[in-house]
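During the reporting period the student researcher (J.K.) took over the structure-prediction task from the postdoctoral fellow and processed the backlog of single-chain submissions. One of the processed entries is reproduced below for the supervisory committee.
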Amino acid sequence: QVQLVESGGGLVQPGGSLRLSCVASRFTFSSYVMSWYRRAPGKERGLVASITSGGGNTNYADSVKGRFTISRDNAKNTVYLQMNSLKPEDTAVYYCKLLSIQTMTAYWGQGTQVTVSS
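J.K. obtained the following structure tokens:
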């Protein structure tokens, strides 16, 4: 069974930075998309950023463009989310998702809390 383990969340002041990591294990997909989603209190889970396994094409939610950067290390089966200039509205549980293009099956991590507050 595919496993995704997120880390790097925590409490940070407005304007600060955090880097989230997601390590994927027990998968052999050659073509996939890895993404970060978030769920803020009282809101539905929404896409933050995604990156493809092949060309490394990226996609970002408008609310994080210019502040967040998604990257990957294929050798380590790890995807990162560098978050800069954090705002209180970025407070949420952040989830890592792996989508297999071959099977169109999605796998989710357990989530990591990010709180932006002074």
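The committee noted the following: The mean pLDDT is 94.
J.K. will present the remaining backlog at the next meeting.
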